[in-house]
Amino acid sequence: VGANANSRNFYLSLKGEVEGAIKVLDIPRISIFQPSMLLGQREEFRLGERVGKLLMQPLSFLIPAKYRPIQAREVAQAMLRDAKNLKAGTNTYQYQAIKSIVSAN
Q1: pTM over cut 0.85
Q2: Residues 6+ positions from 65 with CB-CB distance below 8 Å
Q3: Can you tell me whether residue 28 is helix, strand or coil?
Q4: Alpha-carbon gap, residue 12 to 102, rounded angstroms
Q5: CB neighbours (10 Å) of residue 73?
Q6: 64-100 per-position pLDDT tens digit
Q7: What is the C-alpha to C-alpha distance for residues 31 and 12, in angstroms, rounded to an integer?
């Protein structure tokens, strides 16, 4: 979340540039997933991420939906379900849309 080619943040700027470059390609169907912080097990230790998780999880009801942390497995499930959709076009999914895909039967 936050990808923007015009961002002053290098990481978000690069992500925005990549998304923009992909969108102009002649690809019939593009799905862009923009989760915020991913929750779940990770092999490597990242102190900042660990602190962020400890703070964000109990306070997530105060955070705007698109910035809420989400389980990595939910994002993976949404990606798998979305991959089965054959409808052409470009779709961008953030927290609410990812949760909707996962909860849909």
Answers
A1: no
A2: 94, 95, 96
A3: coil
A4: 26
A5: 13
A6: 888 888 999 999 999 999 999 888 999 999 999 999 9
A7: 18
